[in-house]
Design brief:
With 641 residues, the protein is of the alpha/beta class. The chain is built from 22 helices and 28 strands. The strands form 6 sheets. It has a 7-stranded mixed sheet with strand order 12-11-10-9-8-7-28.
């Protein structure tokens, strides 16, 4: 009998000692980080609302209780009973019964009403029918991504359970080493923006944090081939952590499965969906550009299948010697500051990912409240000594001023933006400005993946700022459903019609003008001196967006909107830069993130910024807070303890 099997037998005995004699436990298994308890008496478990909580506290495990198949009501009878228990106002749109696990997935417009106060309605459902309810939200805006991901995971349930059982046994395996050390190896995004990737390793465990590409630098990928990474084989990686879905952090995760990785990816649920959306589009753009994609769509599906979603604040075992906790990063939907507790109080490391420290219209500001952090790996995108962004209110006024001026001269406003994050932020500003009469009512056309990304935002309102979440819960107040928003879905003909029409605002991908429908819009509107191109987000070095921002007016438009190879376009439209809408903290925000940590970290690694930015921030943190700081290069290894 293996050590894990002995451990499960011991846990089963401990559970049986804690529960009433009339409750039978038929099996105990690990599925990922959770301990799953099977019982013939799910109704009795549900009858005691504190029983599972008491067991979880005593065993220090995340516990899920599932019914033994013999305890289940037939699905047809169960559905009728479940619908009677759930209030009609909850808006149940689908019930899906899974007899292999005894779970019923309930899709509803208002999940909170299905859950009930402190889970009371869920317990009532189990008491009535024996089935274990799982609740998901019906997207207020139909999302093909959410629908496809849910459908795919439903079809792959059996294989996914096998994956989770294997991962669970790996997490709870016996520790093999008595050594105590922690190392971080930098594989990318050091003294540069993009291709984020790090290895966090202990004698027991190797964890990859992020695996992205580098915007504007085709072919520059993280140093995955080195022995510290995949050079020793992809199977030597125990877990992958994804801080958020932007491609400079996520683009190459599916590549791991091409190389033979078969382990878990930990991230939040919205990040999982956005990763699927953005990586599939990444493949599509590569094919349109005539480049060989680095992986296939089947590997994107493998990444989704291997994802274990976690919620903010949940402390989760991901290895015998590592606990992981996600916290809101305030950057984009589902973005996370990741905290690792290593060993039995041995060491604590936090990776900021990309953060925004102050509240925005979309998100609450980044969380920096941890019991302990000895080392912080901190993004430095705007870490330069002069990188102070305009106040958000002033930024919004500047944007409205540009829109009003452009409208009066009969032109159009073209805003290149990331599909995820900045587009939704700008949508909220425009919706309020039109509602308050601060800018004229006019169509706002959304091109590229923006509408689909917006639909995903409305599926997960619990990840949004409190007041925005409340508005989305009421369809008549949902700002993303405002009449002025128009999804461009007919391609070039619709773009031509918009270009020939009256004043309007166009928000289009890609945000750094590196391909995508923005190239077509430049061909349509670029020659119009009455129109304006407005930059609202970071333009990385080497991108066409940065070049235009720096004054280029002759730009290549190969193949876009009818352009042939070698074609160029002379931009005659105006160019404006409106700071303050970035999803990144500025210099002050980064310093405040560190300053307000209590206790502060002993060491800070400044990464994800150009050379000047990381060195400026590293120097400032050293002088102001007397902590050890570093501005590492790629392929450096830091050993702690």
């Amino acid at each position: 009998m293996s050590q894990v099997d002995k451990q499960l037998d011991t846990l089963k005995s401990e559970i049986e000692q804690e529960i009433p004699n009339d409750i039978t436990v038929t099996d105990v298994k690990y599925e990922g980080p959770e301990l799953v308890v099977y019982t013939r008496d799910p109704k009795r478990f549900a009858g005691d609302g504190d029983l599972i909580r008491r067991l979880a506290s005593k065993l220090r495990k995340r516990i899920t209780v599932r019914p033994d198949p013999s305890a289940l009501s037939p699905p047809a009878r169960a559905e009728e009973a479940v619908r009677k228990v759930i209030p009609e106002e909850a808006g149940v749109t689908d019930l899906d019964f899974h007899e292999d696990t005894g779970e019923v997935v309930i899709e509803a417009q208002k999940p909170g009403m299905v859950i009930g106060r402190r889970g009371s309605t869920l317990r009532e459902i189990t008491q009535e029918v024996g089935w274990t309810p799982e609740v998901v939200r019906t997207p207020p805006i139909e999302s093909s991504t959410v629908s496809n991901v849910r459908g795919f995971l439903k079809n792959e349930r059996e294989e996914r359970r096998d994956i989770l059982e294997r991962v669970g046994r790996q997490i709870h395996r016996e520790e093999m080493s008595d050594d105590e050390w922690v190392r971080i190896t930098t594989l990318g995004c050091c003294r540069e923006v993009g291709r984020a990737a790090f290895i966090l390793s202990t004698p027991e465990t190797r964890i990859l944090i992020d695996c992205g590409d580098k915007p504007g630098a085709e072919g520059e990928v993280p140093y995955l081939q080195v022995p510290e990474a995949l050079g020793a084989g992809a199977a030597t990686i125990d877990a992958v952590i994804l801080t958020h879905a932007h491609l400079d952090h996520s683009a190459l995760l599916p590549l791991l499965f091409k190389y033979g990785y078969d382990g878990p990816i930990y991230t939040t649920e919205p990040t999982r969906d956005l990763m699927g959306l953005l990586t599939l589009d990444y493949l599509d753009v590569a094919a349109k550009d005539g480049r060989t994609p680095p992986y296939e769509s089947s590997q994107v599906r493998e990444a989704i299948k291997h994802t274990i979603p976690l919620e903010y604040g949940d402390v989760t075992d991901i290895a015998p010697d590592v606990k992981l906790t996600f916290h809101n990063a305030g950057h984009i939907l589902g973005s996370s500051v990741t905290h690792f507790h290593i060993g039995d109080g041995l060491y604590n490391v936090a990776f900021s990912g990309d953060i925004h420290y102050e509240d925005t219209r979309l998100f609450n500001g980044a969380v920096n409240d941890f019991p302990r952090v000895e080392t912080l790996v901190l993004e430095s995108t705007y870490g330069g000594r002069d990188d102070y962004q305009t106040d958000q209110e002033d930024s919004e006024e500047a944007l409205k001023e540009v829109i009003n001026e452009t409208y009066e001269q009969g032109g159009k406003v073209l805003i290149p933006a990331f599909a995820v994050g900045r587009s939704q932020e700008i949508m909220l500003v425009l919706e309020e400005a039109m509602r308050e009469g601060e800018i004229p009512q006019m169509p706002v056309h959304l091109d590229g993946m923006i509408w689909e990304a917006t639909a995903i935002h409305t599926t997960y309102p619990e990840y949004l700022r409190d007041d925005l979440r409340d508005r989305i819960f009421h369809d008549d107040e949902n700002p993303f459903l405002a009449d002025q928003f128009n999804h461009i879905d007919a391609g070039e003909d619709e773009r031509q019609e918009v270009a020939d029409g009256d004043q309007c605002i166009i928000i289009s991908t890609s945000g750094m003008i590196e391909g995508g429908p923005i190239m077509s819009w430049l061909r349509h509107i670029g020659p119009d001196p009455d129109s304006n191109l407005v930059f609202v987000g970071y333009q990385a070095q080497g991108t066409l967006g940065r070049r235009i921002q720096n004054g280029w007016d002759e730009i290549p438009v190969d193949g876009w909107g009818g352009g042939g190879r070698g074609d160029t376009l002379t931009l005659q439209m105006g160019t404006e830069v409106v700071d303050g809408f970035s999803g990144h903290a500025d210099r002050q925000g980064l310093e405040n993130f560190v300053k307000t940590m209590n206790p502060r970290p002993e060491k800070v690694l400044c990464v994800h910024g150009d050379e000047r930015s990381v060195q400026d921030l590293s120097s400032a943190l050293y002088h102001d807070y007397n902590m050890r700081t570093f501005a590492p290069k790629n392929l450096e290894t830091f050993r702690f303890k």
